[in-house]
Amino acid sequence: MFDTLDACLTDCRDRLIRAPRDRKSPMHTPVIVTADVDARVMVLRAFDSSAWRLRLHTDTRAPKAAAIAADPRVAVLFYDKGAKIQIRARGVGEILSSGPEVDAAWSASTNFARRCYLGEGPGAGSDAPTSGLPPEFEGVEPSDDQLVPARENFALLRITLTALDWLYLAHTGHVRAQFTRTGDDGAAGWEGRWVSP
């Protein structure tokens, strides 16, 4: 089944293509690790298979935005329990808060999702349990006009992948392959090798 490096790399690509499109995909919510050794689960919004680039949404005020600005190294962990496939990836992260790609992502979001950017910034202290949202938007979908101030807090986290570690957990014996980015030419831009699990 996974007896060639090309098959393993294709499996990585196909799973990453499916993950943002299918909310039920186990790889829809990977763990993102920034260089400050902080980890969090995020929703994968898009995968550009020709550039091998992930896109996620974030808040410009989030601590990870400052961490990535200081050191753009990012790790990503995907796991599909049913398929017994783990993908560990490394890449270069960047925070984008303006431009056509950010505008398009903002426009494609629902008002209910956009309201998250109205409240206090991620990590803001509170004396009581809080969503961070202004009280008038708890459980309420704001209007377009009410969301105008939220737009300045919205950003994209783009991660250009530079290394992949693919692991298949099989009862007959695990199989593992590693890939390093050697260029920008799609599948031809990766160099792979088998490694012991």
What does this structure look like?
The protein has 197 residues and is an alpha+beta fold. The chain contains four helices and nine strands, in the order αββββαββααβββ. It has helices spanning 5-21, 63-70, 100-108, 111-114, and strands spanning 31-34, 38-41, 44-48, 53-59, 73-80, 85-96, 154-168, 175-181, 190-195. The mean pLDDT is 95.
Radius of gyration: 19 Å
User: Low-confidence parts lasting 5 or more residues at pLDDT below 50?
Assistant: none
Which overall shape is indicated by the principal axes computed on the Cα atoms? elongated
Q: On the 0-100 scale, what is the average pLDDT?
A: 95
Return the structural class. Answer: alpha+beta
Order of helical and strand elements: HEEEEHEEHHEEE
The first-to-last residue Cα distance is 17 Å
Summarize the structure.
It is built from 4 helices and 9 strands.
Keywords, please?
9-stranded antiparallel sheet, 19% helix, 197 residues, alpha+beta, 4 helices
Q: What is the topological layout?
A:
Blueprint: H1 5-21, E1 31-34, E2 38-41, E3 44-48, E4 53-59, H2 63-70, E5 73-80, E6 85-96, H3 100-108, H4 111-114, E7 154-168, E8 175-181, E9 190-195
Antiparallel strand pairs: 1-2, 1-5, 3-4, 4-7, 5-6, 6-7, 7-8, 8-9
